[in-house]
Amino acid sequence: MRVVGIIAEYNPLHNGHIYHMEESKKQAGTEFCIVAMSGNFVQRGEPACTDKFTRAEWAVMGGADLVVEIPTAYAVSSAERFAEGAVKTLAATGVVTDLAFGVETENVNALYHLADLLGREPPNLRIYLMHHLKQGKSYPRAQHDALADYGVPEDELEILQQPNNILAVEYLKSLRRFAPEIRPLPIQRIGNRYNSTVLTGKLSSATAIREALLGGDESVYDTMPMSVAAAMRFDEQFPVTFDKFAPMLLYRLRSMTIEELQALPDVGEGFEQVLYRAARESVDLPSLLEAIKSKRYTLARCKRILVSALLHVPDGMTAALGKNVDDLYLHVLGLKRVGRGLLAAMASNAKAPVILRHSDLMNCSEIARASIAIDALSTDLYAYALGRELHRDAQSAVTV
What we know:
This protein is an alpha/beta fold.
């Protein structure tokens, strides 16, 4: 039995995602699809537009048979660690045979070449990378310049300017390292580019859709399935924005010592001092971000650090989770009734505990339970920021 895996955020789910799911199943030659999805916070270092259970329900209604959560520590990390956690999660199901992912280039061979090069990281490339990092450049900029110094052609360097291509390279790296048995399946993206800010009809980018939602452009509802458009249009809580978390975030930062700030993921080079001062001088989120972002610490990196502080994500959590497959877990967020056969197959083949209810936590390792506690905290804080009670158990799954 072939099962295609998809890594997603669905922030929000739109028509392009539906096309991707359908095309992925078609090219994989299967009707079965498992989605590994970010939880309440996404890789850009922001809260998702809606909670994870709602987005999992959308995914199942859109064609997924099963949705499992990417552990929060991975979901709010760098592209490399995000890809590693998502690939490991899908591999742990024991049933995924193909990984489908969107690309924004027809030169797929270049993606494989870049993945091989960055995965091997030859000594000279490492030397070039460290040289550019020492100049105070952000990691993406330093990596780009190091690849240029190493002799990578300009057309391949341009490929790494698109977020989907960056993630595609990271998926290929992770597959080769952690799940060589899973077949990569690049799917050509249709419509406008991922980070385009302009709506282009029914197939528009997630970035353009989010901006249109915040700007009140009603034409945006044509870009989504009806169930998603209805939630975005009539539920005044959505889309959720980072400013709703600002008071609790500033409180959290001001209650942390410099040593605790230093222990956050991706904090180094004295950035904890910058964060410590800025948290005490800033009165809102925009002023805080303006005070801490720099050439070295990009806006996205700063946001990921802030989310890690808010959710008590310690440095090294992703490394600890990744050491042994026994420390992973498969938290089911949503499933189709007709897809219960996948659960039965996972019961025999999964390499990590499958979590459907709170009692399943007893099967998890200590590090897995620590990670699940972070996932649960994200659900608690998300509900608090929206001023609502938790209507679902933190480990329950949506069944459609």
